[in-house]
Amino acid sequence: MRVSRQQAEENRQTVIDVASRLFREHGFDGIGLKDLMAGAGLTQGAFYKQFESKDDLAAKASRRALESASGRWSAAAQANPQNPLAAVIAFYLSMGHRGERMEGCPVVALGSDAARQGLDVKASFEAGIREYLEMLGGWIGEEEGEPGGKAMAILSTMVGAVVLARAVNDEQMSKRFLQAAAESVLPGSTADDAGQGVRQ
Questions:
Q1: Where are the domains of the chain?
Q2: What is the pLDDT of residues 77-121, one digit of tens each?
Q3: Other CB atoms closer than 10 Å to residue 189's CB: what's the count?
Q4: What is the pLDDT of residues 148-199, one digit of tens each?
Q5: Pair 66, 134: CB distance under 8 Å
Q6: Taking a C-beta distance cutoff of 8 angstroms, is the pair 22, 36 a contact?
Q7: Topology (CATH) of 62-199
Q8: HEC string of the chain?
Q9: Distance CA 187, CA 184 (A)
Q10: Angle at 96 between CA 190 and CA 27, to 5 degrees
């Protein structure tokens, strides 16, 4: 049965959404096209009508994942306009976020994988990372333009802490990584001041 143009586009967007989650859970090379398409409720045969290659899908799924992550940062910041940085840290450096394999930050989940991918995937990551840095820069008073060193240091600390928190079995050590990062990013504050996120 012939699929309408509108249905084909809806199917394509579904595949991108599903891939953005499954890649974060399994890595770019940890899941094949058959399973990606099955996750979207479609057959593998439909893939090549929608995408040029798996790399093409990886770039689009990365962009979608990073847009979603930036949206979560914006929502957290809007919920606490008096201290948007603390609000973002509270959810980002939380045990809840540590456990979010499919919905969590794509830089944490796929950063090392992205380094081994092609230019299009890296371009998607670069755009998303720049958006993170732009938000951080605005919250800490850096001038607009090229990212400042302080925003870069904050982002590096946050991403690194979640990577390390996920890498260990010891839950107390995991929490300490998150708490230490929160205290480092918000000098003079405890993790409690950043929010209850790191204790969840």
A1: 62-199
A2: 999 999 999 999 999 999 999 999 899 999 999 999 999 999 999
A3: 15
A4: 899 999 999 999 999 999 999 999 999 999 999 999 998 654 444 444 443 3
A5: no
A6: yes
A7: Tetracycline Repressor; domain 2 (1.10.357)
A8: CCCCHHHHHHHHHHHHHHHHHHHHHHCCCCCCHHHHHHHCCCCHHHHHHHCCCHHHHHHHHHHHHHHHHHHHHHHHHHHCCCCHHHHHHHHHCCHHHHCCCCCCCHHHHHHHHHCCCCHHHHHHHHHHHHHHHHHHHHHHCCCCCCCCHHHHHHHHHHHHHHHHHHHCCCHHHHHHHHHHHHHHHCCCCCHHHHCCHHHC
A9: 6
A10: 120
Which one-letter DSSP state was computed for residue 45? G
Measuring CA to CA, which residue among 62, 126, 72 is closest to residue 96?
72
How far is it, in rounded angstroms, from Cα 152 to Cα 47? 37
Angle between helices 171-185 and 84-92 (to 10 degrees): 170
Place of tokens 């499954």: 22
pTM of the model: 0.86
Distance between CA atoms of residues 84 and 90, nearest Å: 10
Structure tokens that stand for 46 in this block: 């439909």
Structure tokens that stand for 119 in this block = 């230019």
Return the closest-CA partner of residue 107 out of 169, 171, 63, 170: 63
